[in-house]
């Protein structure tokens, strides 16, 4: 990682307890309060600090916040000044990574916090509009530098701030939404793999839509297209990401379900805007209730499966480790019902965006649902987050999205 060569002016010092430095050396940027042996009394929250191990050997430069459980977020192991040039270089490096691994994308996550060694900063690019989130105090205080760097690199039409995440409270930061640069009049039409999605960047989910699924939309649609004229069910469809890709790839009929009326209205408009209104329909429904009603049978009646492909992309059912058992019951329930609705030879594309449920656990739940429904599955694809959400294995928190595609063998 190259950074500008300006020497660091003397910064206040934070010293770690013994045995706390290895994680940092491996690349993890978080220092919890319990790992700190000494913090210079002159440090103010949000300040840059010099981090040292218990032998006082240099570890790097980070941002300090005594109000946060994460007291220091390391920005760099190098002796550099954290200034405009630093942010410009970091963001350019992040952009180059996307251009290398995700060529052709025009809307993508430019900076994914820890994944790009900028803990507390997210920047999403939606065509010519940028959306910024700062979830750490020190990063929030440096917003003017970040905005200046973004203007130089992207010359965006608009820069929006979407800062209403729960995590800001733990940093002592208030909610803040608004325009940092330029103007935003109405929704933005975002291009994903050549399809158009109308996106409300001032109020949508996440910073607008789910960019992390962009590569998976394409791959899932290719798998669905192996079965010509498929009948597809897209559960938790939101703006119609999977549904529209499936429709374009050759599915005969696609039905999307989401409990949000706004999402259904937007998905319906998106289908029309892409010339897919004939085959893609959307219905406001609770997926659990809908699947239950479709799989209910009278005694001695046999359920006739009607879908060639089912997509399950629910929100995270977990908020923390403690809620994992309930979440697993929820995942099992939707898989049980989805498998009952799938024809033999059909495709199940299923995703889990909970960091607390790893991919082995997720697959176990699916297999247990397959067992209960007497189905045998063939795994034909394994999914992760799109390349604009890089995974740094020494920072486990950077990995959250996992998914599989299975064919129903019988
Ligand atoms: N597949 C979508 C993302 C889904 S996000 C995409 O690729 O863009 C989860 C979606 O599930 C949200 O739109 C939310 O409104 C919806 N949702 C959450 N719980 C639901 C439920 N029980 N029934 C139906 N929709 C639900």
Structure overview:
The protein is of the alpha/beta class and 410 residues long. The protein folds into 3 domains: 13-76, Roll (Archaeosine Trna-guanine Transglycosylase, Chain: A, domain 4), CATH 2.30.130; 84-185, 2-Layer Sandwich (Transcription Regulator spoIIAA), CATH 3.30.750.80; 192-200 and 205-408, Rossmann fold, CATH 3.40.50.150. 28% of the residues lie in helices and 29% in strands. The strands form 4 sheets. Strands 16-15-14-17-18-20-19 form a 7-stranded mixed sheet, sandwiched between helices. A 6-stranded mixed sheet has the order 2-6-5-4-1-3. The longest helix is centred in the first third of the chain and has 18 residues, at 84-101. The radius of gyration is 23 Å and the shape is globular. Residues 209-210, 213, 236-239, 241-242, 257-260, 263, 286-288, 313-315 line the site of S-adenosyl-L-homocysteine.
**Which fold name is given in CATH as the topology of the largest domain?**
Rossmann fold
Mean pLDDT across the residues is 95
* Lateral strand order in the biggest sheet: 16-15-14-17-18-20-19
Q: What sort of overall outline do the alpha carbons produce when their principal axes are compared?
A: globular
Instruction: State which percent range the strand residues make up.
Output: 25-35%
Report the end-to-end length measured between terminal Cα atoms. Answer: 50 Å
Low-confidence spans: pLDDT under 50, at least 5 residues?
A: none
Give the C-alpha Rg.
Answer: 23 Å
According to DSSP, the number of beta strands is 20
CATH superfamily of the largest domain: Vaccinia Virus protein VP39
CATH class of the largest domain: Alpha Beta
